[in-house]
Specification:
Length: about 180
Amino acid sequence: MVRLLLEDVTLLQQQEVITAQVRFKGGATETITVAVSRGRRHSPQLLALLDQLLEDYTDAGVAEQLNHRGWRTFNGKPFDAKQVLSLRRDHQLKNHGTRLRERGLLTADEAASAYGVCRETIMAYAEGVQYATKSFLSGRCGGQTWGVIPRHKRSRRSGEGKSRPDTPPTRRGSRSKVI
C-alpha cells in the first residue's frame, strides 16, 4: 500500500542526524530529520565511580557501594553484580582480581608454587601473623583466592611488621610451629 503513495525515499546519514527525503507520487516532497539515538548511556560520573570502586571491591561490592550512594539503573532499580559485570565488560574495565594482581598480589596457588608448598599451607600461613592478606573473588565460578602481601609491602600500623624473620611457610607435615 505504501508503494502506491511513495515515488522515492532517500536516506542521508550524518554524524548526529539521519535525514529522510520523501517524494510522493503526486510530486509533493517531505524532509524528515531525526537525531541519531545513542541508546541508554550511563553518565561519565557513574563510569568514573565504577572504575574507582573496582580498585577496592568485587562486582558485588561495587553494586552495594553504588546502591549505598544512591545510584540506580535505567529502570530505577538497585544495581546488582550482573549489571556491574555488564557495565564493566561494555566499557572494557578490568575486574577487581586483575587489578589486585597488577598491584603484585598473588593467588594462593601462585604463592604455593613460588614457595614450593601446597595451597592449604599458604592458606593456613596467610591467617597467621607473618603475612597480611586480602580476600577477593576471581574467575567466573567465583572461587575464593587470597592475595598474599609480602612483609616489605605491609603497613606498619598496629605493630605489623615488627622485627620477625621473613621466613617462607613450612611444608605440610612439618613439626615446626609458625609464629
